[in-house]
Amino acid sequence: MSLVTVPSALSLTEPPVRPRTPSVWTADAEREGDRAARLAPAVLSEGELTRAAALRREEDRLTYLLAHVALRQLLAAATGRTPRAVRLVRDPCPCCGGPHGRPSLDDGSVHFSLSHSGPMVLLALSSTPVGADIERLPDPQTVADVVRMLHPKEIAELRALDTAEGPLAFARVWTRKEAYLKGLGTGLAGGLSRDYLGTGVYPALSPAGWSVADVAAPDGFAAAVAVRSTP
Fold first, then answer.
1. Angle of helix 29-43 relative to helix 46-53, nearest 10 degrees?
2. Which residue range forms the structural domain that includes residue 147?
3. Is the four-CA dihedral 109, 131, 88, 34 of positive or negative sign?
4. Which of 19, 50, 115, 193 is the most buried (most CB within 10 A)?
């Protein structure tokens, strides 16, 4: 896939799910958080409202509300249900079989992935398993501390860059990896060093059976989506 550009998750203007390709949306809590908070009592489950109320920082609360209001609205549009009638469950963990795998729709008719960093929210829906990730660019020290977790070729690429170039290159490969691992359902437990996705402007060749693409993101962020290919 090439670079994916995205509309706002609270301004649905296209089909929520299209065949053979992920549908991707962003939302910004600094612009849309208050609107999501007004919609939340009529959209979210009681459990989601309780979790939001427990968040101490207002910024975190608005980001949570926006992410989950947008997700329920998108899933409702995709399934013909009302937002509160959308029932989310947990898949079995693919690593241990426990009941703490990724969230999913109860009937499995639509696959989705949700990610947020700071005020930014990224959501992806697909007819096949999908993963999405958005991250704020890290500081150089974080890059230096975490780089050893990546594939050896990616480590070499990052260490060959100037310090100023490192955060963006690291964020590119990190979001690609996390999107892919979320699509698999393993999360970071699936290992960051196993597959090579590259730190360059374009992703390296995707793992077999998957397509990985960068997503257009605001300045200071990087984002990616991964979708399981269909025959």
1. 140
2. 23-228
3. negative
4. 115
